Fold this protein.
Amino acid sequence: MTPAANQSLIPASRARAHIFYRRLSLAIALFALCSHAISMPAAAADRTLILATTTSVRDSGLLEALLPTFEEQSGIEVRVIAVGTGAALRMGREGDVDVLLTHAPSAEAKLVDEGIVIRRTPFMKNYFVIAGPSDDPAGISKADSPISAIRLIAENESRWVSRDDDSGTHKREKSLFATAGVDGHPQWQGFERTGSGMGLSLQVAGELRAYILSDIGTFLAFHERIDLKALSHPAESLKNIYSILQLDPTRFARPIASSAADELEGYLLEPSTQKRIGQFGQQRFGRPLFTRLHSKKRDP
Amino acid sequence: MNELELQTIAEITIRTLWVCGCALLLALAIGIPIGIVLGSKRFLGRSIAVSTVNAGMGAPPVVVGLGCYILFARSGLFGGVGLIYSLTGMIIAQTLIAVPLVIGITLAAVGSLDDEWNLQVRTLGIGRVWRLWLLVREIRMGLLAAVIAALGGILSEVGASQMVGGNLDGKTRVLTTAIMMKTSQGQWEQAAGLAIVLMGLTLLVAGVLTVIQQSGRTR
Amino acid sequence: MKTQLEDGIALRASHLECHRGSGESRFKLQIDAIDLRSGEVLVILGPNGAGKSTLLRALAGLEGKSANKSIQKGEGPVTLVFQRPAALSGSAARNVRAALLGKGIPEPARRERLARALARFDISHLENQNAKTLSGGELRRLALARAFVLEPSVLLLDEPFDDLDGEGQRRLSLDLQRAIRETDVAVAMVTHDLRRALLLADRIAVLIDGRLAQFGRRDAVLEKPHSPQIAQTVGMTNLATGTVRRVVDGVRWIEVAEGFEIPTTAPVSIGEPTWIGIRPENLKLDIGRGEGQPIGKAVIESLVSDGLATVVSLRTQGLTFTTHLLSGRGLSRRLRPGDRVSLAVQPEHVHALAVGDGPIG
């Protein structure tokens, strides 16, 4: 929700209602935390780090491959909360978590601008894919760029499944449609909005034989079951950069485990970790899911 | 909250009521006769049927949803019918969730009558249809309980609605799936708004039925 | 099955068989022939588990198709009032009206029948009361009104006096008696309350182990039971066995204990093992009024009074006897346990049959 909408919802004169509402949102946030199964290792470590990330990152299995080594080396217990990008960023904004791992550059930039995030460090990338039914009714596999593929889909008013959930993927979809010159809020029959995660949205697209923008990891995990094909080619406009975001600990009443967050960042950028990132997915999908980002200088 | 959001909430609420209302009516139409038969007749396989119903009463909606998904999906048994991600599919799934509740509670209500109740009414020489009418009148409090339980169950159920309905905007999005969605998107104020509507609805339904029940009891 | 029945017979069952339960608890009811007559009350007696309620249900047509085949009935409804009548939700009037549902009776007639049925059992004032709040006695009256509103030709009553106090029983039996007389309905009644049964009964059927042990006019069954077990069931509590030793002026003297002889006019043979039965009201304490033949002395074991009658238990020579005295009168006041009294009986009041003799069924 935008701050403006927030304002219209809570008139300044009704401070009590405001407080009630804040508490209610907090309660719902807590519910969200609980319902997203925070993993609790049997042995409690001395230090804990609460990491908010997106479901697509969790679903890829990358964290399960990387974090045990980090926990062993550092003695830090990492609790992963996997939610939508919007919820993850919101949790960072509220200081409910210690560190964020997201892939929504423009939304991340906003947090950086506001000073909530003091450092944003990209550490890996891959490419989104535009997937669709194998008979490709709009003929987008012959398009010369993702943008013209979107134009073809819009012109044909082909079925499209949008996540419409304010996630990194959805933000990218919106920017692709905007670049293609398609109305910001497409309304044709067959333009479906799921409001759900990538996996569910892919299932919907598969059932409805629709086109969809997906991250490569989730797509590879699902594509055999849902009978959809990747119809796009890697391009700059589909580049998907994953960053780790450090919060400004001075802004929150709750203490932020900043040093632990720093250690996690250092671990992710280590050459050996980077090498493992670059190889991750080879075994399961026959190809790596991510490309490592070398020696990127840290933003101040 | 701006006008568009209010309009969306209203639309989602009306859709929720439509889906749950249809599912409830179907579940009552299917469940009450079965409950009455199971409750008043003795036949081979009855105990198996009763334990199936009891198991069904405890079946998590998510499991029912998964079952429906597998059947309705393109590759499923009823894949060609186009039930997946449709309101009809959701109504069927919710009916399946509610039917065991209705059967179970009807069964219990019939069972709570005197063993000889049916014989006593029969010996008055009343025709079958009128006996059924008397029976329904006699267990109407139990039937109200069935309505409350079934409606409460499907109004608050999210798993099956999400899986079978897909939470499609403007098509199959209902209150529970919308709340889950808004929560996962970090739009907690909107989630709270929808949650209040849902709470209000359940309280209203329970309240109205309780009032009917109370007035029925004193009569 | 509706077939032509002789005049006065409202229902007849022949070769009736019902099975209940399975294995060890399997129970079989087998009745060769029983009939109910209009305006008459048949009381069905028998020990617990003899099949009395099953017989009533079978007569009501509630024991399945095969049982129904053996039942012939005339015109008019057959209805059964259960031991624990079910109150339908709603008012008393609604309960009675329920019996008329879907029978094509016009409303004015229904209203009139309702009023008559309620008045018959003196519950008109309860018309609008919730049936679930009625007392046990009121509910029973309601159930009877619900049965009579049908204008039945056969009315079957299962323990109609159960759970009622003495006064309630008395009033209900009077109302019931009048209703039966006025409507000419044929009644079969199961009861364990012998006194009420004897007041109402025209005929008595004794059921033992699912079979009709004896069936006949009231006095015949009461005074001439076919076996000691039937005797006990119909309240002939003074039982003994012995042998006829001598015959004097047509009176046979049966020795039931060493030197203790009981006279009877029953035609039993000398030397034959015989059982005798005397109803308690026929066994007298001999106080010189010459009531019957003196038969010997006995010691009073106990005196138990219910306010109306005093049951006196006596013992002599290993035999026990009971007799009834009116409470509050001279004798019952004077006597104490341990007192020795003389017993007397009129020979025609002593029932005697050869052991193992007598028609069965």
Observations:
- Chain C has ten helices and 19 strands.
